[in-house]
Amino acid sequence: MERLTLTANRCWFKSGDAAFAPYSLAPELSSFSGRPRFLLVPRGKPESKPLLVVEGRKGSTAIDTYGPLMGEPVAARISADLSRWRAGADGCSA
Questions:
Q1: Which superkingdom, per the lineage (predicted)?
Q2: How many Å apart are CA 92 and CA 94, to the nearest integer?
Q3: Is 12 helix (H, G, I), strand (E, B) or coil?
Q4: Do 26 and 41 meet the contact criterion of CB atoms below 8 Å apart?
């Protein structure tokens, strides 16, 4: 999850990607539940309800993604990027 979080931050936010400009990344990698995750929240509102949750499982490469953004057009991009990154790629574009 740490690698996914770092790659998402680099590719979606530090790169200035317009699709992710309205959001901020909030990592929650130190989880006592064994389910580290990162969140996308509205930019400038870190206390807001997450718009996207990307949650891992300790000892597994499986992830769950859920939240309102998964019903928006950007969902296809999110899913494609996460699938590519989980497979070992670290580039920002397909």
A1: Bacteria
A2: 7
A3: helix
A4: yes
